[in-house]
């Protein structure tokens, strides 16, 4: 993204379909001054997503743009317009369970970020935790990346490994992955908000690292 101007604080849209624990972690980090950005709007494709309630409880603007499988392009255009209405610099996918196409991504080029519960490129897709358990891997983890037109793909901002214990269930593993996500995502949003990320040939360079 462009260098953060001294006059303008980075404005973030958070897109979430589910429980919103990453949204909460991000807003807590903003409140505590660990992220140099403000959450301008929270948008969900699921009208009764708990993430929307958690946003409203925190005094944030929360909007549903219900997914419409009969008009996917129209839905995506409405979603993009809703985000744009809030004059947003950065879009954070925090458990957003829809694939965004080129029309959306072109409006925030290199400025859409996703958190995924695996060490990409392993275990792309909607059930990364279940797939990791089924594969019997000893190590999985968390990836935060910029979003391109492929699913769970794009320049990697940060990754952190999480050991898989022999007796792990989906729940126990997910708890440890979430704890990492809640630290890594705010850190990456802060880097982007401060203009500290450069991308060349698909690779991320963090300035001043
Ligand atoms: C997270 O595990 C994230 O990696 C994945 O979806 C989950 C969202 O969890 N993309 P939450 O809604 O933030 O609690």
Brief digest:
The chain has 209 residues and is an alpha/beta fold.
Describe this structure in words.
- The model has no long low-confidence stretch (mean pLDDT 96).
- The two termini are 17 Å apart.
- With 209 residues, this protein is α/β, with parallel strands linked by helices.
- It is 33% helix and 24% strand.
- The strands form 2 sheets. The chain has a 7-stranded mixed beta sheet with strand order 3-2-1-4-5-6-7, with helices on both faces. A two-stranded antiparallel ribbon has the order 8-9.
- It is built from 6 helices and 9 strands, in the order E-H-E-H-E-H-E-H-E-H-E-E-H-E-E.
- It binds 5-O-phosphono-beta-D-ribofuranosylamine.
- The site of 5-O-phosphono-beta-D-ribofuranosylamine has 13 residues, from helix 1 and strand 5.
What portion of the residues fall into strands of 2 or more residues?
Answer: 15-25%
List cofactors, ions and other ligands: 5-O-phosphono-beta-D-ribofuranosylamine
The helix content, as a percent range, equals 25-40%
Low-confidence stretches: none
Q: What order do the SSEs take from the amino end to the carboxyl end, as H and E? A: EHEHEHEHEHEEHEE
Describe the secondary structure blueprint for this structure.
Layout: E1 10-15, H1 21-31, E2 37-44, H2 50-57, E3 62-64, H3 72-84, E4 90-93, H4 102-105, E5 112-116, H5 128-135, E6 139-146, E7 156-163, H6 170-193, E8 197-200, E9 203-206
Helix pairs in contact: 1-6
Bound molecules: 5-O-phosphono-beta-D-ribofuranosylamine.
Descriptors:
single chain, 209 residues, alpha/beta, 7-stranded mixed β-sheet, two-stranded antiparallel ribbon, binds 5-O-phosphono-beta-D-ribofuranosylamine
